[in-house]
Amino acid sequence: MNKTAVVLINLGTPDSPSTNDVRKYLFQFLNDKRVIDIPWLLRKILVNLIIVPFRAPKSAKLYQKLWTKDGSPLVIYGEKAKDLLQESLGDEYSVHIAMRYQNPGIPEVLERVRLENPKKVICIPMYPHYASSSSGSTVEEVMRVLKKWYVIPDLRITGQFYDHSGYIDTIVDNAKKHDLSNFEHFIFSYHGLPERQVDKVYDEGPCSDKHCDSEITHENIHCYKATCYATTRLIAAKLNLKEEQYTVSFQSRLDKNWLEPFSDFVVEDLAKKGMKKVLVFSPAFVSDCLETTIEIKDEYEEIFHEHGGQHLELVESLNDHPKWIATLKDIVLNG
Fold first, then answer.
1. What is the pTM of this model?
2. CATH classification of 178-314 is 3.40.50.1400, yes or no?
């Protein structure tokens, strides 16, 4: 029986926390023209001669803190999600996990899929919000591989799911593991992007002119900033949070011309204002990873304490939550 192949695709992780493996990961990731979207020669000089040589040893130390005895949490949770989804879908499906950067790589995984001779292929980039540097890059790589196949079966590549009820409900469930009444403020921290990348979504005018922080329209439906704010409003409504109780912010910036406000600045500012207990959501990440476990849980908590705060807590990512697996199943079956 020819099965339907399902390929779950996440961003990627080094093969190990060694400086050499982190260097390989950063080299592949940051040389992607959709990630650092500047002229080719300038990107090569910036990435290969400046960023990677200086950043790899520092990043390796952070990955060493993140790593578990079983490896990278991103791979561990990816494998768990794959196995649970396989169990839920049954024998008519063949579920795989791939990473855009490093291993298991998209070319390697899709070759295994090709050898299965599937009747249909469904690729699910596991990014809730569209961004050229994540969703766009992943789709481009999938198409680069598939266009070389002599036989290309029925194909579906799913899009963003920032407003999927199952995705929202999973985050709400994880939030409710905390006593929300104990917190004075809530931060919704999303991965940052250069402002020029969200501006490129529009044929005319910058993102800042599109009311992306207050509504979704036909024009900004693929704007990363707009969909991040939309996700926040949906979660806040489910948790009965008032607008003044929460802040949307963006983390992991490389320079000052990125989406604002910056999450670390928000954390510092709340502590200086006298806030003692803050809860942080990270809805852009479906699996806990360096940006959640280390950047938010460790680094931001340290910033919070330094400026007078007492307790900063992180809402865990979707990981292998049953509602997340049900959400993935719904995306497979219904698009």
1. 0.96
2. yes
